[in-house]
Amino acid sequence: MNKTRKLYVKSFGCQMNVYDSQRMADTLAPEGYVEISSAGAADLIILNTCHIREKAAEKIYSELGRMRRLKEAAAAAGRRVVIAVAGCVAQAEGEEIIRRAPAVDLVFGPQSYHRLPDLLARAERDGKAVDTEFPVDDKFDRLASPSSAVTRGRGVAAFVTVQEGCDKFCTFCVVPYTRGAEMSRPVIKIVAEIERLAEAGVREVTLIGQNVNAYHGEGPDERPWSLARLLARCAALPGIDRLRYTTSHPRDMANDLIAAHRDIPKIMPQLHLPVQSGSDRVLAAMKRRHTRADYLDLVGRLREARPDLALTSDFIVGFPGETDEDFAATLSLVDEVGYSGAFSFKYSPRPGTPGANMSAQVKEQIKSERLARLQAAIDNNQAAFNRSCVGRTVDVLFERPGRHPGQIVGRSPYLQPVQVEAPASLIGEIAAVTITEVASNSLFGVLASSSRYDTEVAEHSAPAWRHHSAHRTDPSPNLPSQAREKFERTGV
Ligand code: 5AD
Ligand code: SF4
Fold first, then answer.
1. Quick one: pLDDT at residue 468?
2. Taken in order 233, 238, 241, 242, is the CA torsion positive or negative?
3. Counting Cβ atoms within 10 Å, is residue 461 exposed (0-12), middle (13-18) or buried (19+)?
4. What is the whole-number distance in angstroms between the Cα of residue 316 and the centre of ligand 1?
5. pLDDT tens digit sequence for 168-210
6. How far does residue 433's CA lie from ligand 1's centre (Å)?
7. How far apart are CA 316 and CA 320, in angstroms?
C-alpha cells in the first residue's frame, strides 16, 4: 500500500481545466493521493492554469508566492510540500516558471497529465521536472478512471472531454499554441466513459472541447463520426437524460448538428455559440471565417430547428482597429440575436498571437467603456429572457442543496440556476418546476404537479421573450456582470 498523501488542485479558467484537474486527481489516487479542498495541509499542490486572457501569468506568480510561504512553513515543521504548475501557463512559460518561482518543483503542459506519477518521481529524484512536450501517445488512454463513489461526489451533471486543441487560429487566441492541434477522442472511449458516469448516477453530460463541433472522432465502424452522430449515440445510453456540448465555432455548425437540435429531445435547448464581434471588418481581422450575416443566418436555422433555443456567446471588445462604428455593430447584434446570457472581455494581447503585433491597439479606457456598455446590453437580454420564464413550467435537474435550509438548486433546460423549496431527496432527480420569480440571474420556483415541461417548449414554438428583448431600455442594475462568471460554463 502506498502511504496516504494529501493533494490540493486549484483550477483556473475553463471547464476543460476543471475536467483535467479531476482526471489528475484520478490518476494520482492509485498512488495514495487523497484530494483535499484547501492548500494548508497538502503534500502536493497543483495549480492548473489558464492563459487565455489578461494577467493570467501574473496571477499564477502571485499565487505561487502564497504557496512558497506554505511550503516554507511546512519545511520548518519537517514536512515536504511539492508544488506543481500545470495547464496552459505551464505550456507557454515552461522552465521560466522555475526560474521566476524556484519553490516550484514540477511544470507540465496539458498533454502530460497521464505522466504525472513519473514526473513526480523525477522531481523527487532530480529536484525539478519540466514536461511541455506534445507527445504522440493519447493521454486519455492512460488517464485513470474515478471510482463510482468519487464520481457520485462530483454531482449528477458531468463534463466529458471529447475533443481537444484547435486548428482555427483566430488572431486573438492562444489556444492553438497551448493546447495544440485539434484532436478527437474515439467514440467507443467516450461512450465507455459516459456509461461509467451513468452507472454512478450522472444524469446530464456536457461534451466539451475547445472547438467541440469540429469533432470527427473515429466511430466503431472505423470512420470519422460527426458530433451530431456522437450525440445521437450518447442519447441512446441508459440513465443519461440530458446532453449539452460546448464550445462551438459557428463555421462548424454542420446541418446534421442543427437537425440534432430538432430530432434529439435529450439535447438541451441551450447553445454557447461565440460570435466575438458584430462587425465584419473586425471578424475578418480576427480571422473568424464567418460574417455577421453568416452568423445571423445560422441562428435563424438553429431556431427553425429548435424555436425555444437559448443562445449564449462570447464577445471581445477593443480588438485592434475596432472603431466606434464596429462596436455599434456588436451592440446591435446583441439585440438582434437576443441572448440568454453572454461573456464579454476586453481584448488582451497574447504574446505570440498575430493580434498582439497589430497596429491600432485600442486604448484601455475605450475598452473599459465599451465593455460596460456591452455588458449592460447583455444584461438586458438576459433579464428579458429570465423574465419570460416566469409563469412557465420547466424540467429542473436538481444538483445540490440551496443557499437556505430547505432549498435545493438545479438547472433549467436553458442552464439557468433554479432554487426550489423541496426535499433534499430530489437531488439527482429531474422534476417539473413552475417558475415564480427572478432575482440576480437566479430563478425561483415551486414543484409542479405535472412531470413534463410546458407545452410551449414541448411543441418547440418560439418563446415570447425574443420578440420583446430587442428594444428594452430599462437597464437592470441588480444583475451581476457577465464578466464575473467569466467562462465558468464555456469550453475554452
Ligand atoms: N483577449 C480577450 N478575450 C479573449 N478570449 C480569447 N482570447 C482572448 C484575448 N486574447 C475570449 C474569447 C473566447 C473566450 C473563451 O475567451 O471571447 O471565446
Ligand atoms: Fe480556436 Fe476558439 Fe481560439 Fe478561435 S477562439 S482559435 S476557435 S479556441
1. 40
2. negative
3. exposed
4. 6
5. 999 999 999 988 899 999 999 999 999 999 999 999 999 999 9
6. 35
7. 11
pLDDT at 148: 74
Q: Give the C-alpha separation, 257 to 214, whole Å.
A: 11
Q: Residue 166: what residue type?
A: C
Give the separation between CA 85 and CA 105, rounded to whole angstroms: 8
pLDDT digits (tens, 9 = 90+) for 155-165: 899 999 999 99
DSSP for 267-314, written as a single string: B-SEEE---B-S-HHHHHHTT-S--HHHHHHHHHHHHHHSTT-EEEEE
Q: State the cell numbers at 68.
A: 512558497
Minimal CA–CA distance to 292: which of 283, 305, 301? 283
Please state, as a whole number, how many other Cβ atoms lie within 10 Å of the Cβ of residue 318: 23
Question: How far does the centroid of ligand 1 lie from the alpha carbon of residue 23, in Å?
Answer: 25
Contacts (Cβ under 8 Å, ≥6 apart) of 342: 312, 313, 314, 315, 334, 378, 381, 382, 482
Closest atom of ligand 2 to 169 CA is 6
- pLDDT, tens digit (0-9, with 9 covering 90-100), for 410-467: 999 999 999 999 999 999 999 999 999 998 888 999 999 744 444 444 445 555 555 4
Task: List b or e across 150-183, with b for residues whose CB sees 16 or more CB atoms inside 10 angstroms.
Answer: ebeebebbbbbbbbbbbebebbbbbbbbbbbebb
Number of H helices, E strands in the chain: 18, 19
- In this prediction, residue 477 carries a pLDDT of 29
Residue 135 is predicted with a pLDDT of: 64
Report residues whose beta carbon is within 6 angstroms of any ligand 1 atom: 52-53, 172-173, 274, 276, 314, 316, 345, 347-348, 350, 487, 490, 492
Please give the C-alpha separations between residue 374 and each of 330, 334, 425, 447, in angstroms, as whole numbers: 8, 8, 41, 35
AA letter at 490: T
Q: How confident is the model at residue 142, as a pLDDT?
A: 63
Which string of DSSP letters, residue by residue, matches 125-188? Answer: HHS-EEE----SS-HHHHSPPPPHHHHHHT-SEEEEE-EE--S---TT--HHHHT-S-EE--HH
Q: Give the length of the chain.
A: 492
Which portions of the chain are predicted below pLDDT 50? Answer: 450-459, 467-492
- Are 141 and 14 in contact by the 8 Å Cβ rule? The answer is no
Distance CA 396, CA 219 (A): 32
- The pLDDT of residue 455: 44
Q: Which of 112, 121, 87 has the alpha carbon at shortest distance from 11?
A: 87
